[in-house]
Amino acid sequence: MTKNITFDLADTVEMKKPHACQTNNWEVLRLGADIRLKCMGCGHVIMMPRADFNKKVKKLLAKSNDPVNLKNDFYVAKEDIARPNFG
């Protein structure tokens, strides 16, 4: 079964198995081929391959309102930037 959930930085996800501190909630710190997660219970940071993460994630608990994720809304392509004519 493939999951079509997109993850952003600072999202909170629930994993299938709890951490040693009995917490299932994790915060996404890094996205890429590897994903870095921080336990919301004890603060332990782990890194795992994306393939393993996709198998072990249960659901997305909370989307972040982090300004880092809003940068794409303000992105302007290089050819659309207005340049003054000094010449």
What are its keywords?
87 residues; mainly beta; 5 strands; elongated; DUF951; DUF951 domain-containing protein
Number of discrete domains: 1
Low-confidence stretches: none
Number of strands: 5
In percent terms, what proportion of residues is strand? 25-35%
Counted by DSSP, the helix tally is 1
Shape: elongated
User: How is the biggest beta sheet arranged?
Assistant: 5 strands, antiparallel
What is the residue-averaged pLDDT? 83
The H-and-E topology, N to C, reads as: EEEEHE
Query: Helix/strand-derived class?
Result: mainly beta
Largest sheet, order of strands side by side? 4-3-2-1-5
Radius of gyration: 18 Å
Could you give the distance between the termini? 60 Å
Helix content: under 10%
Topology diagram in text:
Blueprint: E1 12-15, E2 25-30, E3 34-39, E4 45-49, H1 50-56, E5 57-62
Antiparallel strand pairs: 1-2, 1-5, 2-3, 3-4
Question: How is this structure best summarized?
Answer:
It is built from 1 helix and 5 strands. Strands 4-3-2-1-5 form a 5-stranded antiparallel beta sheet. It comes from Lactobacillus delbrueckii subsp. bulgaricus.
Write a structural description:
The relative contact order is 0.23. The mean pLDDT is 83. A hairpin with a 3-residue loop joins β2 (25-30) and β3. With 87 residues, the chain is mainly beta. The protein has one domain. The protein is built from one helix and five strands. Strands 4-3-2-1-5 form a five-stranded antiparallel beta sheet. It is 8% helix and 31% strand. The longest helix has 7 residues, at 50-56.
